[in-house]
């Protein structure tokens, strides 16, 4: 099967054009699980099938995590698929991408940079206690919870007091406890962040469905930006988020009267790594 491998800030994906419906929905989770397996196959954090639109979008993206579980949306994936869509003539410089979480608008900035409008914040809970299994010593007292879109992709947001704390090995236990906390019935991606005095933010995300830290997470970055806005820590404009795979920019737009977020735009690189044929 022909595939394209792409990455955005080191969050990597396998794309398959399924506009002719060759791969039935029942088979897609298995294909994703097999092809995403690192060392044994192509390897990626997630997989996207490009499908014919069901409503009035240019096309539809169906996302699976590397363990074969479905994801409602993927910010970096949507940016990559926007480049794929543009370069394969599925849409122009601006495009409408159908996702499970709702319609996402994409825009080409230049050859390697793509921007999407993230789905609206549908749920925001500040100061949630992520109850963990009895006796679990996770050390986290409170976190924030955000969903973007409907059904929204679930994100827990956790501030750490120092940038040196953003180390996968020291955060793994905490991440796994929050990821599986009964407080989040659909599970959660867990985004740790440190907001520096220079206006930049550093972030490290543990992803549901990958069950590990990834190099970047677009909807996670948008969720952290939504929390920082709600908490009055950032205003309107663009904030740069640094992560293991590079950086992503989030532009926050607010309604002047209500002070509510109207739009969150995610911009970053969308790189084509390879095109090839995978054996399934
Ligand atoms: N990396 C993604 C999110 C993948 C979705 C996934 N981990 C899930 O919770 O289903 C992003 O850039 O937004």
Automatic annotation (TrEMBL):
Subcellular location: Cytoplasm
Keyword annotations: Amino-acid biosynthesis, Cytoplasm, Isomerase, Lysine biosynthesis
Record field: catalytic activity: (2S,6S)-2,6-diaminopimelate = meso-2,6-diaminopimelate
Alphabetical list of Pfam families matching this protein: DAP_epimerase
GO molecular function: diaminopimelate epimerase activity
Catalytic residue positions: 74, 217
Protein name: Diaminopimelate epimerase
Species whose genome carries this gene: Hornefia butyriciproducens
């Amino acid at each position: 099967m022909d595939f394209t491998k792409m990455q955005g800030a080191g969050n990597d994906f396998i794309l398959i054009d399924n506009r002719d419906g060759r791969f039935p929905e029942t088979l897609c989770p298995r294909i994703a699980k097999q092809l995403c397996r690192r060392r044994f196959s192509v390897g990626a954090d997630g997989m996207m099938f490009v499908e014919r639109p069901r409503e009035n979008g240019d096309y539809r993206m169906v996302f699976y995590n590397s363990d074969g579980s479905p994801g409602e949306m993927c910010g970096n994936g949507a940016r990559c698929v926007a480049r794929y869509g543009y370069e394969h003539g599925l849409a122009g410089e601006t495009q409408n991408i159908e996702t499970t979480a709702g319609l996402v608008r994409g825009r080409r900035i230049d050859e390697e940079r793509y921007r999407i409008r993230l789905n609206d914040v549908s749920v925001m809970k500040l100061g949630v206690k992520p109850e963990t299994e009895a006796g679990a010593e996770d050390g986290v007292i409170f976190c924030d919870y955000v969903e973007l879109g409907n059904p929204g992709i679930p994100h827990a947001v956790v501030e750490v007091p120092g940038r040196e704390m953003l180390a996968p090995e020291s955060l793994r236990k905490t991440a796994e406890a929050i990821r599986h906390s009964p407080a989040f019935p659909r599970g959660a991606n867990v985004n740790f962040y440190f907001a520096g005095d220079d206006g930049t933010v550093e972030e490290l995300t543990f992803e549901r469905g990958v069950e590990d830290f990834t190099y970047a997470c677009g909807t996670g970055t948008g969720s952290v930006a939504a929390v920082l806005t709600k908490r009055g820590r950032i205003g309107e404009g663009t904030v740069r988020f640094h992560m293991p795979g590079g950086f992503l920019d989030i532009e926050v737009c607010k309604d002047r009267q209500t002070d509510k977020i109207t739009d969150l735009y995610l911009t970053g690189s969308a790189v084509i790594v390879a095109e090839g044929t995978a054996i399934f």
